[in-house]
Specification:
LanC, 18 helices, LANC-like, metal-binding, Lanthionine synthetase C family protein, globular, two-stranded antiparallel ribbon
């Protein structure tokens, strides 16, 4: 890839190799295939939608993949979540409808009803859990499985609806401390490890800082909603509370600020967390995702100091050979494409000097998707054949979408990544 403005060629090459949803080389018989935004059809459909929206590939192909999304029963209720079932399918159809107003209206109406019903159920259960003084599960509030991910969809589709306000009110309450057995813990402290299960190396649980599974995700949603003018009582205070927590655990190194992925119970009691200088920076965990979430928070709070600090932190992280060496794959979730995408999104809202640095770094990061210079077609084939597969979070479709977004060919103000809380579009 020779320059960021040509990166759309990789997106086109990936899409051309994923032209048919019934291709027997794809895992079409896996039960998760049709409904998984992370791994399956919805994420690949997003790539085709975005390419069709800019005229690089036909809408007919996008419609073929969208038909595959809606071709069977849809999982709703407790067995669904933002990246599987009704919310996942709703996200890709809503993105398509944004480019083709009126399209998929009937299907979206049904999915919107299912998502709203599930949001109410989840919020009610979460408040009952808080009332009982119990610790939350990560899946209660996070971006991938929880109410933050549900809220990301609602902000896209129904920002002024009662369910959106209910999610925000819950997230405000999530930032208030809990007092199990007389010990003060942040309201998002979970009794499990980062996997969501009890782990011996996390005695007493942990406080997760990341975007995908931790408190940076709720902060990004609270900030995005505030920037859109959707504000409930205590929302700005909640954003400040999370910022204070992140400040408390930040380590200032010669490569810039670094935030821990999580804080353990022993570290909480010692008031000191272990942070590795060479830890990977990514969307899901680490500096890149943290910076975008904090940049949005700074914009919502009009905090010019924080904004300057975190924007500079991203430039330094993406220029640091130790942190870059920890990035070993091209994926959107935790690879070079994800770093390029976040740098591109941060640059759009950054101070001018920082924005210039970040745009130069985007090109370098995208070059790492094809480090041997084999060209878009061969690079795309390698991505699909890789362990990450064809999907959105860890596979070829996500790399293609990031490459397209960073190119001059992308639709301005697109919202395909609203499920990641990295964009700042104009909502309806």
């Amino acid at each position: 890839m020779r320059a960021a403005h040509e990166s759309h060629e990789l997106a086109v090459a990936v899409a051309d190799l994923l032209a048919h949803p019934d291709d027997p080389r794809l895992p079409i018989h896996q039960p998760w295939w049709r409904q998984s935004l992370a791994l399956g059809v919805p994420g690949i459909a997003l790539l085709h939608v975005e390419l069709a929206a800019v005229g690089l590939r036909p809408w007919q192909r996008a419609h073929r993949w969208l038909a595959a999304v809606t071709s069977g029963p849809v999982t709703t209720g407790p067995d669904s979540h933002p990246f599987h079932g009704a919310p996942a399918l709703a996200h890709v159809l809503a993105c398509a409808a944004a480019h083709q107003p009126g399209a998929y209206a009937r299907a979206l109406d049904g999915l919107d009803t299912a998502v709203a019903t599930d949001a109410r159920r989840r919020v009610t259960a979460a408040h009952a859990r808080i009332d009982a003084g119990r610790l939350p599960a990560l899946a209660e509030f996070d971006v991938i499985r929880g109410l933050t991910g549900i809220g990301a969809y609602l902000l896209h589709r129904a920002p002024n609806g009662p369910e959106m306000r209910a999610v925000l009110q819950y997230l405000v309450r999530l930032t208030q401390p809990l007092h199990p057995k007389g010990e003060v813990l942040p309201g998002w402290w979970t009794g499990s490890g980062p996997t969501g299960r009890a782990e011996a190396r996390f005695p007493g649980g942990h406080g997760n800082s990341g975007v995908a599974h931790g408190i940076a995700g709720p902060m990004a949603l609270l900030a995005l909603a505030a920037l859109h003018g959707v504000v409930v009582d205590g929302q700005l205070t909640a954003i400040s509370t999370i910022c204070t927590w992140l400040d408390q655990w930040r380590s200032d190194t010669d490569a810039g600020p670094i935030w821990p992925y999580w804080v353990t119970r022993p570290e909480l009691r010692a008031d000191r967390a272990e942070v590795h200088r060479d830890q990977r920076s990514s969307w899901c965990y680490g500096t890149a995702g943290m910076v975008r979430a904090q940049q949005l928070a700074a914009l919502a709070l009009n905090d010019t100091v924080r904004r300057a600090v975190v924007e500079d932190a991203l430039v330094r992280a993406l220029s640091d050979p130790h942190q870059l060496a920890a990035t070993t794959n091209p994926s959107l979730c935790h690879g070079h494409a994800g770093l390029a995408h976040i740098a591109h999104r941060v640059a759009a809202d950054a101070l001018p000097d920082i924005a210039q640095h970040l745009r130069a770094l985007v090109t370098r990061l995208l070059d790492q998707v094809d480090p041997k210079g084999v060209g878009p077609r061969r690079a795309a084939a390698a991505l699909i054949a890789d362990a990450g597969g064809p999907g959105l979070l860890e596979g070829a479709a996500g790399v293609g979408l990031a490459a397209l977004s960073c190119s001059g060919a992308a639709v301005p103000n697109n919202s395909w990544d609203s499920c990641l809380l990295t964009n700042r579009p104009s909502y309806p």
